[in-house]
TrEMBL record:
<keyword id="KW-0964">Secreted</keyword>
<keyword id="KW-0713">Self-incompatibility</keyword>
<dbReference type="InterPro" id="IPR010264">
    <property type="entry name" value="Self-incomp_S1"/>
</dbReference>
<keyword id="KW-0732">Signal</keyword>
<feature type="signal peptide">
    <location>
        <begin position="1"/>
        <end position="28"/>
    </location>
</feature>
<protein>
    <recommendedName>
        <fullName>S-protein homolog</fullName>
    </recommendedName>
</protein>
<comment type="similarity">
    <text>Belongs to the plant self-incompatibility (S1) protein family.</text>
</comment>
<dbReference type="Pfam" id="PF05938">
    <property type="entry name" value="Self-incomp_S1"/>
</dbReference>
Length: 134
């Protein structure tokens, strides 16, 4: 192994361990949360999500129009600050008692100018407006 190979391999191994640990939920089940920017007009969405006890702080993310931000959640709750243009809101994006049954392993949120839509696969394949901007 030459110097270049070892310089690349070591960070990749460390990164692999970090990603593995972050994506393994406490209960052993993986629940994916996706926030999709559908604001239009090439507007960016700023996202900052934390678990209520601030055990998990996902940091600030800027999601471009048409982009997505995804993570694997632990069996807890996630509170997210969302901001775009001159709008701001704090939303309970995931709460296990409320969402385990209706998300079924994947909570897909479409963020639009009218508000936040949660995709519900059953009983009908549709997006339901859950929150509006104040």
């Amino acid at each position: 192994m030459n110097l270049l190979t070892s310089c690349v391999a070591i960070p990749l191994v460390v990164l692999g361990i970090t990603i593995s640990n972050m994506s393994t939920p406490v209960s052993g089940k993986k629940l994916e949360i996706t926030i999709a920017n559908d604001l239009g007009n090439f507007l960016n969405l700023t996202v900052h999500c934390v678990s209520p006890a601030k055990e998990y702080d996902l940091g600030f993310q800027v999601v471009p129009y048409g982009g997505r931000y995804q993570w694997f959640a632990h069996d807890s709750s996630y509170l997210c600050d969302l901001a775009w243009h001159k709008k701001y809101g704090r939303f309970l994006i995931y709460e296990s008692r409320r969402d385990n049954r209706r998300c079924k392993g994947w909570c897909f949120w479409r963020i639009a100018q009218e508000g936040l839509y949660l995709h519900l696969a059953k009983p009908a394949d549709r997006d339901e407006l859950e929150f509006t901007w104040d």
